Amino acid sequence: MTIKTFFKTCLITAVLGSFVLAGTSCQKEETPAGEGNGTITGTVSDSNGNPVEGVSVSASNTESTATTGADGTYTLSNVPVATLSVTFEKEGYQTSSITVPASRFSNGTATVNATLTIAGAKITGTILDGANGDAPLKGATVTLSTGTSATTGSDGTFTIENLTVRDYTLTVSAEGYIESNTAVAETDFNNEETTATVTVTLYKTVLLPGLTLSDLQNADIWYYNEYKGGRNGDNYPMFDWSSDYMATLDFRGAWAEQNEGTAIQIRNNEEQQSNPADHNNFDSFVFGRKMITEDNKIMSLKIRNFKENDQAVDTEYGVTVIDMTAAEPSAVKLGENKTINSESYTDVEFDLSKYVGKEIVIAIGTYRAETGNYFRQLCIRRIAFASTAVKEWDWLPGTEVSGLDGWHMTEEMVRSTMANSKYTTFTGVSKVSGSRDEYATAYQSWRGLGHIAAEWSLVPVNKDAEPFPTEGFVIKTRGNVTPNLDTPESYFYIKYPVEAGKNQMTLKARSFSEANSTWFRLTAIDEDMNVSHILPASHTADSYSEETGNFVKFNHRNGTADAPDGYATFTYDLSEFNGKEVILALGVYAGEQNGDENKLCINEITFN
Fold first, then answer.
1. Residue 133 burial by CB count (10 A; 0-12/13-18/19+): exposed, middle or buried?
2. pTM score of the predicted model
3. Do 311 and 411 have their domain in common?
4. Which of 54, 84, 116 is the last residue of a domain?
5. Which of 221, 304, 474, 519 could form a disulfide with 589 if both were Cys (CB 3.0 to 4.6 A apart)?
6. Pairing state of beta strands 346-351 and 298-304?
């Protein structure tokens, strides 16, 4: 038979078959033919075999219902003889459903007995708002692992009833918050009321305005115990525009570098003036991560604000802390919101003792207290951390490291400075040349570059610095000063983890004087307070000598940003510190009285 003949035969057969099947259903029969309606009857008992009265019984796809009597029996009449689902419900018992196939009917009657499990247990609890002082959280959804759910009321409470005593998982969620899962064990119901009670605190997904937990895990580290802001020269050179780099920190919202300090402002353009008052979320703020120890557990702020249209005004501000070591980090206000109304500097302290041994995120910011044209500023001259409060214009308090008299380097600073391993190369060249009106822009350009003034800490013991020469960052001596090889005129320091592969430090630098030399020295301080003054293992300086006390005296006038190979190089072997985190301090000294400001121009420092 050919293929064509085969298909022709099949077509004829299919047509003839259609006449034979006409009038009959193609679906499988689910009910016995001709039996019509019938009855379902039975008894409902509890797990102990006792009859249960008052159980509501219903069958799917029918209007037939019944209620069990005192003997637990029921009858559903006039139900189709077909596959049905019979449901048994009573408060205090777990709802049960039984599938009854058509084949179960005999002479129109199906007997269906049911056993109900006592379900008189319940879970109650309170959901709290961890971002708002643990206030009750309204509108949170509480869902059991069985699928039953409830929503919290204005008091943050919920109740889920008609449960059996067993283990559950409680999932709590709310918009803008991190979902939480809590285990409720069978043993939690062991009381007369058969009630398990829970309290769950939810934490916001956004912990600071615009910043999630993931953002904060990558926040800037505040390695040091002092950050200074402002363009004035108070208590020169300790507070001077050329020594103050608070504007390198991470600010959000409106802020500016001003004469009196770094000002955190209220956003207040025409569109922002319609923003509502908000006493819980910062309008603008600065933030960073910091390890808190016994040596730096008190944070001191030197702050002030300004008059507005010659009227004294209050600026509302506060401090928020996020414990990054917590299982579920949350933003917690450090005390109540504060206000300042003073054009004189005020010292304010915040106690971080409860966070000793923990790495936290600290945020300092302003709150919009009113809607409308509302402009305020919090001007910060200093953020300081120490074991005690820092007052007036003092240096950081503590026990000065032995042998470093006058350095203002304390044992507390050595211990609590955080190790900086983010970069292996640090530059002294600024991408933006700052002017009085552009300091903030210039300082912000240092971020992400490993700039020495952003990643190291400057201590201007006697002399200010020059941040913006095109050749590099300049630390220098006073002119025509009596020689002093005990105390540097100024120095940069960092705590660096020395290890194999990162135990060689190379300094690329130059001087400027045609006739006079620059004296400098690298000093290492370990956490046992051992002090070592280190000479380079090699150098390429034009004029170089090693002086008593392990000082370098050099003169080298080559090297520019466009000709980096022209700088002198000084290479140090740090392998004796392998496995240690050591303070490395690079200082310039008044080695000779020659009438000059002798300068150390730092182009680059590399660890390899």
1. exposed
2. 0.70
3. no
4. 116
5. 519
6. antiparallel
